[in-house]
Design brief:
Length: about 260
């Protein structure tokens, strides 16, 4: 029987729970995007779903371990965890540039797309087409004996993930603050507040997950922060009716989109 520690099991279970809750909010946004036929709302759906990519392998690995009593293969773990990150960051940049700096949208998206393509080539080359290469030091080190639900990313993968987190959080915080400062209606003011909290909480969760060795208590706290950030992302972009009813927003102030 393949044994994993209680901390590893907790890591996998909480990651699975966080991803499921994130998917729930994501599909509500997807339904909203179809209903209002808004491409930016659909882009935000992509943000929610693929921003959770780094937590996919832990959740999937936990389910795989429960069924097969073996750890998830290294290649699957790495691929599932990071191949969707470029989709998330490009979708977010499309939302941000469209609403904040539309004149520079094409060049910024093009530059980040080139950066992302280089990342994907690097990832697939060392994962599948470089036999004999020291893959783990170039992609990420996963120790199945200590914690098969976690991985320590290395090389260009670490650079890309760090750049993506920094880009998403800085632009997201700017987006939210700009909304708070420049919009006079309580509707958009509250959306900005929720988004500001969401980006800050997501940044904290992502950074801790990437670089901090966590015990059980800190792990639970970080997963709660991750789930809360996804809830605030959903509220900040959609501001559902049930939230409007408990906030000081007068009827008729709601808007159909979140243009700056």
């Amino acid at each position: 029987m393949f044994f994993i520690s209680e901390l590893a099991q907790l890591s996998g279970f909480t990651a699975l729970l966080s991803v499921c809750i994130g998917f729930f909010f994501g599909f509500i946004v997807l339904i909203k995007s179809v209903k209002v036929k808004d491409l930016l709302v659909f882009n935000f759906f992509l943000c929610i779903i693929f921003t959770l990519s780094p937590w996919y392998p832990s959740g999937l690995g936990y389910v795989y371990w429960l069924i097969n009593n073996t750890p998830l293969d290294y290649e699957i773990y790495v691929l599932v965890g990071i191949v969707g990150i470029p989709i998330a960051i490009l979708a977010w940049l499309n939302v941000y540039m469209t609403t904040v700096k539309p004149t520079k949208k094409k060049i910024i998206l093009s530059l980040y797309a080139i950066f992302s393509i280089a990342f994907e080539i690097y990832l697939f080359y060392y994962l599948y087409f470089a036999p004999g290469a020291p893959v783990e030091p170039l992609l990420g080190i996963k120790d199945d004996l200590i914690n098969p639900m976690d991985i320590d990313y290395k090389g260009f993968v670490l650079v890309y993930l760090g750049a993506s987190i920094l880009t998403a959080c800085t632009t997201g915080i700017h987006f939210a603050i700009k909304s708070i400062k420049e919009k006079e209606t309580p509707y958009l003011l509250w959306k900005g507040r929720f988004l500001l909290a969401a980006f800050i909480l997501f940044g904290i969760s992502a950074i801790f997950d990437a670089i901090v060795q966590m015990d059980q208590l800190l792990l639970i706290i970080m997963r709660i922060i991750l789930v809360t950030s996804n809830l605030f992302f959903y509220i900040g972009f959609i501001l559902p009716k049930w939230v409007e009813k408990i906030l000081p927003i007068r009827e008729g102030e709601s808007e159909k989109n979140f243009e700056m």
